[in-house]
Automatic annotation (TrEMBL):
This is Agmatinase. GO terms for molecular function: agmatinase activity; metal ion binding. GO terms for biological process: putrescine biosynthetic process from arginine, via agmatine. NCBIfam families: agmatinase, PRK02190.1. The gene is gpuA. Mn(2+) 1 binds at residues 146, 148, 150, 237, 239. Binds 2 manganese ions per subunit. It comes from Caballeronia grimmiae. PROSITE patterns: ARGINASE_1 (PS01053), ARGINASE_2 (PS51409). Pfam families: Arginase.
Length: 322
């Protein structure tokens, strides 16, 4: 595979047109292997809004990313052609289900072309139309890092809020619940509906107390066992981390993962059959420091390394088999 043009990375961080990690902006899918994209949408939130501003601020803070991973010495930009394909252009911003259609149509050609997508949200409702865009021949596996299971049903008349994407995906035959692991779950609820749905359908739910007891390495090993060699999607909600690290989010829950634990967990997932992933629920108005967006950008870089390693493996012409 050809390498990414990193000429923008040689500019001062405050200069140039902002793209994710200062990679080229590209519309031609044939010119890239991994697409970075933004979904500036928060029409599915049930609490604090603001995630529509997430992609813009993550792009801004991603200027702090560099090329070579300090642990593995891996350079994802050298291994693959990485490009920013821009944001979903919404035509139906104020209609939740129609907006999800805009998201699906934007990503359909990306996955149809056999490319991986790494997406910055936006609220967590965006993951369901991304699954629809992938349109897998058989249900996907999932590694899901979050404070919440996001398997509730309807909220105030809608079944498509940020609390429901994985329930909708199971119902649509897009997600295999028995190859799903949900990590970092915590926080009191007024109903056990979401926890019960996940557990009753065979999802592996790792509450934060178990994570703390066993540690990220053991949980990553279990995730690998559950997922196996199936095509797998990675979804990271920043409220999975403790709000000490990510205060800029819509539904914060104290007692979450640390940044170091999250990095260790992600690094333990190397080599899986990745199809795509997202980092969601960054709400910059609740964090004037910009740290939440910096954490999100750094996690995107870590995930990019996972994806690029997979895409660059010998014998893999298309990054994924779905």
């Amino acid at each position: 595979m050809a390498a990414t043009d990193l000429s923008q990375m040689q500019l001062p961080r405050f200069a140039g047109i902002p793209t994710f990690m200062r990679v080229p902006f590209e519309r031609d899918l044939a010119a890239l292997d991994i697409a970075l994209a933004g979904v500036p949408f928060d029409g599915g939130v049930t609490a604090r809004p603001g995630a529509r501003f997430g992609p813009r601020e993550i792009r801004n803070m991603s200027t702090m990313m560099r090329a070579i991973h300090h642990v593995t010495r891996f350079n994802p930009f050298e291994a693959c052609r990485v490009a920013d394909i821009g944001d979903v252009p919404f035509e139906h911003l104020y209609d939740l289900e129609a907006a999800h259609g805009d998201i699906r149509r934007f990503f359909e050609p990306v996955f149809r072309a056999g490319k991986m997508a790494l997406i910055a949200g936006g609220d967590h409702s965006i993951t369901y139309p991304v699954f629809q865009a992938i349109a897998p021949k058989s249900p996907l596996a999932l590694v899901h890092i979050d404070a919440h299971t996001d398997t509730w049903d309807a909220f105030k008349g809608s079944k498509f809020t940020h609390g429901a994407p994985f329930r909708r995906a199971v119902e649509a035959g897009l997600l295999d619940p028995k190859r799903t692991i949900q990590i970092g779950i915590r926080g009191a609820q007024n109903t056990d509906e979401g926890w019960r749905y996940s557990l009753d359908h065979g999802m592996r739910v790792v509450f934060i107390e178990e994570f703390e007891k066993r540690g990220p390495t053991a949980i990553a090993e279990e995730a690998r066992r559950i997922v196996g060699d199936a095509p797998v999607y990675l979804s990271l909600d920043v409220d999975g981390l403790d709000p000490v690290f990510t205060p800029g989010t819509g539904t914060p829950e104290i007692g979450g993962l640390t940044t170091r634990e999250t990095l260790a967990l992600l690094r333990g997932l190397d080599g899986l059959n990745w199809v795509g992933g997202d980092v969601v629920e960054v709400s910059p108005p609740y964090d004037p420091s910009g740290n939440t967006a910096l954490v999100a950008a750094t996690m995107m870089y870590e995930i990019l390394c996972l994806f690029a390693k997979r895409a660059a493996m010998p014998g893999i012409n298309a990054p994924v088999s779905i």
